[in-house]
Amino acid sequence: MAHLADDASLRPGARACLAACHTPVRRRPLALMNLALLTTAALLVSQAPLLGLATLPGCVLFVVWRNTTAMLAASPPPH
């Protein structure tokens, strides 16, 4: 998939989609942490809606955003 993302004959949208599918595989620890954080936030909001919606989603989404930025920035250039 990483080599397909470099194929010049593909449309830019298809290349971006292939790269997006391959990034979580390369950066598995960050992807698993994002998944765990989002799952925990969803469980807490479903159990205690007022407390969960007050602070948790904003903090979790910020951490997931920073992790995703790090996942994409740390991607080595394809060969």
Describe, in plain words, how this protein is organized in 3D.
- This protein has one domain.
- It is an all-alpha fold and 79 residues long.
- The protein contains three helices and no strands.
What features would you highlight for this structure?
79 residues, mainly alpha, elongated
What distance lies between the first and last C-alpha atoms, to the nearest angstrom?
Answer: 12 Å
Number of DSSP helical runs: 3
> What's the helical proportion of residues?
over 70%
How much beta, percentage-wise?
under 5%
Q: Kindly name the structural category.
A: mainly alpha
Largest sheet: none
| Mean of pLDDT | 77
What is the general shape? elongated
Query: Please, how many domains?
Result: 1
Q: Which stretches are poorly predicted, pLDDT < 50 over at least 5 residues?
A: none
Order of helices and strands: HHH
